[in-house]
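Changelog note: in this version the structure field was regenerated for every chain. One regenerated record is shown below for reference.
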Amino acid sequence: MEIHLSRVAFGTDVHRLKMELANILHRPPFLPSTDNPFNFEVSLFPQKRPGPWRSASLTLPSVDIGNTFLQWYGGKNARCQLILGAIRVSFDQSHKPPRRETLERVRRMPYEDPRVAQAREQQTTEFRATLVQLKTVQFGWECRDHVYSIEWERKDYSILRFDGDRREFRVQVPGLDDTRTIAIRVSQVSWISASPPPNFESESSVASMAATLGGQTDIPQRQRWSAFDETHEAVAPYTSLAIRLECASLDDLNIFRNLARVAHVQVGNFSYPIERRGLFSEALRERYDLWVRGLPWTVAFHIEALLRSWLADVSEVLSLREPIDRVLRRYKREYTAALLRDFITQAKTLFWYGTDQFHPEHASQHQPKYTANTVSGLFAQVRDQFVYKPLETPLLTGDVTAPFHCLHLIGPYPERSNRDCFLRYRFDRDVDGRSFIDRRVKRILLDGITIAGAHFTFLAYSQSALKEHSVWFVKPFRHVDERGNTQIVDATSIIASLGNFRNLSFDPTLIHCPARYAARISQAFTATDASISMEVGQIMQGRDIMDATGKYAFTDGVGTISLQLAMEIWRALREKRRRGRQNKTYPRAYQIRFQGSKGMLSIDYTLPGRSILLRPSMIKFEAPRSLMIEIARAFDKPEGLGALQDNAVREAQRSISSLELSARLLEIHGLGASFRLTSSFLGLHKLGMMAFAVNHVLRELKHHARIPVPGDESWTLVGVADVHGYLNEGEVFVCVDSQYESSLIYLEGDILVSRSPTIHPGDVQVVRAIESLRNTIVFSILGQRPLPSCLGGGDLDGDVYNVTTRRDLLPRKRYRPASYEPAPKKLVEHESTMKDVAEFVAEYINSDTLGIIATTWLTIADQSSEGILHPDCLKLAALHSDAVDYPKSGHPVPSQLIPRPPFKVKPDWSAPETISKDSTRYYESQRAIGKLFRAIDLPAVAMVERVVRLQRRHLPDAKHDERVADMLNHFHAEAPSVDDDVVYAVQERVADFIATDDYDDETIISIWELYNTYVSQLRAICADHTLSHTRSAMLTEEEAVVGTIVAKCSQPRKRKDTMSQMREQTATLVGSVKGEISGDEDIVSEESLRRTWIAYRLAGLEGDIFGARSFGWIALGGIFDAIKEIEDEQRTQTRRAIRIYIAVT
């Protein structure tokens, strides 16, 4: 209810009025003494004419409270009065209903004492008025002898202010045309440095004046830059972590101390010596560039990474020139690159992480044994102890993350792809501002970039990479074809080799739509997991099955494949898995890339021989030269849909009590997949990692409401079409072949079908299920509209659908699906070129609003009483569909079309992990998602501190030959521990098939070298995939194994992307190591078991050294696989012997 107030004494501010009203409303009869104070809102109206009083409004959360208040204080003959300034305030019911957003805000936001709000406003006002005058701004380098070397400075009048809303210090240097700004977030500041680097900005004087006067100008009012100015550009990538400010006076220094105290930033009293050492001088940079340009690129990449990681200055890197050149001459490129990568990781361990930051008293006991305190000394120590064994991995790619003014280089890494060696360039997500993107991002895309002396040009991207703002670059290289001819391959020749994109009868405007043209090119750059290529026998061209109007295709993106070819593909995939789990059946559907087509192929038992049938909806461009079909994914098992939250929390917490529960938890949430922990868990001898898994699962439940639905009632299945027309409208075929069930599961009756993301009420439909192809959902080809198109605009080119038989999840009310009209294509008048594609990528980075739309949809649904049926939510559902189509249509969703939430404060479930619980910017959401959020408290991450402390990254203190001899002596002298029940049980199991004391030194040394290589690469992955570059950020071995990151992060997308990249790299590493341990394909299973047993023993001898336990888990998985192979072979031989015996008798 809204109440009108009149005769409010002039001079009464909102805070005073609210305090007086709170003294009334938060007492009986309006509020029982046992209840928490309810919220209300007061607004003062502008004074229309001179007088001693003003008018105001009071918004109360309910009509009952309002009526009770008016009974006591309303009207001329009120029983009670409120006197302000000798004037009685009059209260009457307003003639207008309260504004919806105001009422929702009052109901959802907790009451805040007006005195607290007033103090905060006063503090903000004081912040804005408080200036620290500076006389010098300096950027430099913190040397290892605790001297600050000034590498750049600006001696001009400047000021420092603190922005409380943004929580950042802003150093402003006025100029004639603009004001240059260095913005440093409070969260970046430590007592040593600011990490990551600050933002460099400018504010145009002309644009500001025009805005003040109400005019317009083409000059952006505020712009971001890669450095403070042109003179700072050369050293900005290296010297932006340490800024030194000279205050104009002692009074200014004291003002700064007060600002820092209020911002909760510690200010020390120590004195830092300064010198001008010229560590990044132009002469040194030229010497460095000349050296790097002459090196093999993989070697030069790691040297550049050392410099770009702020681990060494240019002079220190140059001191490594002679020893690096010597190693390169003796051991060649691959060895040198591997050594440098290990050295960088060791340098991070020593120079970033230093002593034990949690418990310094343990430092001498658990700290790595580093004896060097200089870069050259550390390199010599790492070189002497380095052990290297080449791994059979795919070709390497460099990975470059590009903030606005510096590069962060990691890798090179093996890519999950059978393409060539390219550079992946990822633009920082914090990049914003159209003018900055045009200057920086577009320039790189159009002109290319030079990394470690090699120039790369923009090539393409995959659709998933574009969402991460990541693209591919390539440098020209020589390729020798099958005829022995040498060709120069570059971006232009690669694009030309893909196929024809012009004058296509099925898509005539393709070449005139840069976004769509790039999307078709991206098919060739989509990574495929364990992909194979196989020649097709017969290619049939089919027709799409359309609805009566010709608008919808029931077979959109799906064709068929013969049983014979499907079986041959499955056999090839099983062989590629080497000694892994062998499924008891074969997939009935594959996602494929073939010639210029992509989509799904489901088995059609009527097709003859080795044939496939393609439909027009699958063909994206013309590329008829190759007859090899590439398998992107085989759908051989269902996925868990993953009662509800309470059960999920209990299951997560109970998982550490049982090996079986642990394995199930890991599988449901996709954790530990790289190391195949689910299948190996019965042999794990330590369960410390489960604390990391539980933390990950509870975090996903708390912050993303990712609640797994029990797998015996709900599944995620790929969609295909009922090409034979058995199904009626509203019917589906569903058959599940679950590894947890002994028989097939045929779904019958009403089931819920949806597709992620579900944003429109009609994205969830109920259909009738009958029998099906295994592990697929087969949709009907009858009716007015294909059901997949109703589910978030889905199709059948590989989309997966969620199905459940749970009655409590079936919707009580059903809604019509959204129309999901295709977004219009943005065309150009000429044929698209890669320049147009580059322009589109830059525009996409600046205009990608998909995440904003999804978050706004959730927020409005939370703040509105209508929930997801609010008109703005329905509008956002349509905008979301357009935003999803943006990468292919080229038409962005303008930000001005996105509705704003009713009020600025946000629901508590949307708060970053790093925000304090008592922040006034968030309210307690009363929706289910809010209650789920508050119901979970993440367990303390003390486990991380303990692991970091007790399992430090290890650098041996002996040379290679001495370590080999010591390892062999140790291996032969120590028998497996009989005190460890698991180790003893594993040995007894292995002894059933081979002699467990049958060793040879050559195999032991080979596997030991493999172990050291594995540890080196795993350590690099842990160092590279951190959420920050702080001293405590390096991942633990357990985090890498489980596939999670425990540290808090204010950017959920950053955590997700980093975890995904980390899992990808660990999967590749583990796959290569597992294959090397097991041996070649042609060795007998008993020999493979012997090798894996040796590896398991070696891991046990290494104890808790970083990497040892996970190497043991890999070996343990290999032991189980080898034993299963032996048992399978024995069963086969037994069956053959029985058949021979029967035949003889």
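Spot check on this record: Residues 1108-1144 form the longest helix (37 residues). The two ends are 97 Å apart (CA to CA).
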